User: Fold this.
Amino acid sequence: MEIHQVGVVGAGTMGSGIAQAFALGGHPVGLVDSDGSALDRAMQGITKSMDRLVRKETIGSDVAHAALGRIVTARDLSRLHDCALVVEAVFENFAVKRQIFQELDALLPPAAIVASNTSSISITALAATTGRPERVVGMHFFNPVPMMKLVEIIRGETTSDAVCAAVVGLARSLGKTPVEVRDYPGFVSNRVLMPMLNEAMFCLQEGVAERDAIDTVLKLGMAHPMGPLQLADFIGLDVCLDIMNVLYEGFGDSKYRPCPLLKRMVAAGRLGKKSGRGFYDYTEQRTA
Assistant:
């Protein structure tokens, strides 16, 4: 099953990174977002990322120029009508993803594959909202997409063997390492990672240790490159809460209960690095 023309829905950090990875892999890419300013920011970010790769001599300037030329932006999904594969990369909200999947299902050729970059939402549930459940799959990339090798390939209950094999091969062609997992809440990555971050928040809330001490223990004791509270800030505390809620609701197990401190911080708008404040204060870095 050959996949050439691809589409990406959502021009945020993940969507723009996925578009860049496909373009560097030689694929014509349609990048769609209803927000024109988001598309402008995405292309600026992709250009800067390409420039960094050129400066590091990871790729040549001709490769970067050619890849940028393969990306076309649009504000309407109709731009993706001839794609063989479309990856949805919007925020973690089932209702929003369902709407996009249904629109893509009506728009795309019958043989096209619809994938989601979701980090926790059920691929089986998304597939059931379409008329092509066997052609729906998860492709969970990791941030920053141009640098991170892992792609979780999530097989829903109805995903066909041929579709799974096609996206595994596609990921490998991009220089990624695909790992096939089954469709359970949080898959593997977030089922393991998010409870650890959540437990670090409980340690802080209960006064077991201060913020810096908690992060230092994981960095120096477990050789983690970043402490759990700092990592949560970089992921986005709202995203962490969304994923913990998916785990809690999906398993019905109290061990996945979101930390009350996390819920309070999200309610207060302290979402981490993207909002300027989370467990750490990033406002000085912005003005420096």
Residues 21 and 146 are 6 Å apart (CA to CA). The first strand starts at residue 6 and ends at 9. The chain has a mean pLDDT of 96.
